UniProtKB/TrEMBL annotation:
It comes from Natronococcus amylolyticus DSM 10524. Residues 33-155 form the SCP domain. This is SCP-like extracellular. The lineage of its organism: Archaea, Methanobacteriati, Methanobacteriota, Stenosarchaea group, Halobacteria. Pfam families: CAP. It comes from the Archaea. CDD domains: CAP_bacterial. InterPro entries: CAP_dom (IPR014044), CAP_sf (IPR035940). SUPFAM superfamilies: PR-1-like (SSF55797).
Amino acid sequence: MTVLGGSALAAGTNQVAAQDVDFETAVESAIHDRVNEIRTDRGLDALAYRDDLAAVASSHSQDMADRNYLSHTSPEGETMSDRYERFGIDCRGWAENVLFNYAADESPTAAARQSVDQWMGSDGHRQNILSQSWTAEGIGAAVASDGRLYVTQNFGTNCR
């Protein structure tokens, strides 16, 4: 078993183990798998998964879901850099992808694929996913009361 962001995955697969894992956690794990599949198919190194980056991402996704906005900056002006600082994370470099879609009624794997495809269809988000600068990522997903799926993907290099 590989444990990522609190979920258990069967080694070598994208299938969630028999343990009861919530939808958001399963989506996060499936996105990580899909991003690394895309990267390695292009000859890039896979990204490590960092729980601290995932905590920042989860917090931002939940805030966006709770307050119905989509932005790298909260309504009060908190930026990604501010969130990293608030969580005590110091990285030499960092970036963030955010999105929302209506994939919350899909399977976690389908929701993850739709989310990654959405990012890959956007030049800036695609550049983040395919950047050789990043060595790690953390992903946070949250489902809003209206059924929208919010996802934040945080990247970092040389984080401590």
